[in-house]
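Weekly sync notes, structure subgroup
Attendees: PM, AL, DS (notes)

Item 1: joint prediction request from the bench team. They want all two components modeled as one assembly rather than separately. Inputs as received:
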Amino acid sequence: MERTIWQRSQLLSLSHLSPSPWLLQLLLRNGGFVTFLLVEIGCFAIMVNFETRHKEIWANTTGIFGGRALEKRQMASDYFSLYETADSLAHIVDSLQARLSNARQVQVSIRDTFFLVNYDSLAKTDSVRRKTIRPQYEFITAKSIKNSIAGTNNWLIINRGSKDGIQADMAVVSPEGIVGIVRHVGTNFSLVMSVLHLQSKISVALPNQKNAFGSLTWEGGNPNEMTLRYIPQHFVVQDQEPVVTSGYSLMFPQGHPVGKVKGSPKPDPENPYFLEITVILSQDMATVRDVAVVKNLFKAELDSLQLKISNNER
Amino acid sequence: MNGSNITPNIIRFIGLVAVQVLLLNQMTNTVGEYFNVLLYPLFILFLPLHLPTPYLVLLGFAIGISVDASIATWGVHASAGAFSGFMRSIAFWPFAPKGGFSAKDPIFAPAHVGWQTFLQGTALFMAFHILWFFTFSYFAPVFGWDILKKTVASWGFTMIFVPLYVAMFNPKK
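Output from the run, pasted for the record:
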């Protein structure tokens, strides 16, 4: 069978390679494609180095792709450091929340004026110009690792315990609203009585009604709604009015969001001098994840005072 | 390539570079931007059929860079020349006889393969070359429509000049 010209030329070219330079040998042995590829790379380099238009287009393109690549690398790097970022942000939230609550606690008006000053309301000296801020609350961030909302008495477990400074009867809040009260503390974990518990009773206020305060309870059923009682009848409470913590419970700081009034209040059938108000919780209890445990720094002192009140009343 | 067919190729190389630079590129400048006749690829086209692809690529690069050097279009013609060298066997393949070209066909010219086969093979070969040339000339996909228009126009004009060249010089080796 007669060989084609091409086949013969390939054999001839390979049999006479010894005098050729090694690079040419390499190119011939690896076929036309490698040669083509190397030559094209060379041409490309010539174009982008010597042709002004090509140089500009190339610089622009590599700039765009280089920028995108850097952006992706940064995103990947950010992703892997998310845990540290979240931890750091949680501490910032702690500190800001504490500052906010403490600031609320001590902001009072100068007598007979509308001006507000930072006033240490617990100080013995009665000076309206006193500007010392004495912190009352600390916030310890935590994550809910177990939660229930379907029962009549619901509980949560958080990943902080006595090792982290958690004690019984501390309030648990989230940025959106209230979550519950710590009841049992382990070394590393704590059991939190959810606001969706028949025994939960939280002192809340209506800021649009001169901070009229009442008691918020859950009566089972809808996990998004609680009942507010002991707001006197003469208050004209509107639909969608905000409800916040009153600060009278010693556990929850004053002014923390709780929810909104739903519909028009009705007279309380058990006590017609007061209203029965349905409150929609601002924190959806089905999605609670990141929470903060509120530590009242004067709790021991306040508790001992409360005890004296109780003893006197006996 | 043996000694007897090196000389015609060297002459073709010099002649085609000269015609391309001194005549055809000047005509483009005078007539208009769509009048792009690229005849220098005929040097690659008329290289011996048995020449291995790496040589075709290197010789294509050589004639391309010569044109580039003369008209200061660094690398564009060289790239297209190398590409044509690589694609030549692919362009000729559909028109090759069964079993490939034989020793009776030293080059792809009408004198050996006939006018019809020659024009068909050349048309495909030139289309590859011109499309690559304008793609790298514009160097950005955003000019896709311009690349296509110029490729079609240039290919049309070039395919008018190719038979004229062959009729004038009737290359046989």
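Discussion: Residues 3-31 of chain B form the longest helix (29 residues).
Action: AL to compare against the crosslinking data before next sync.
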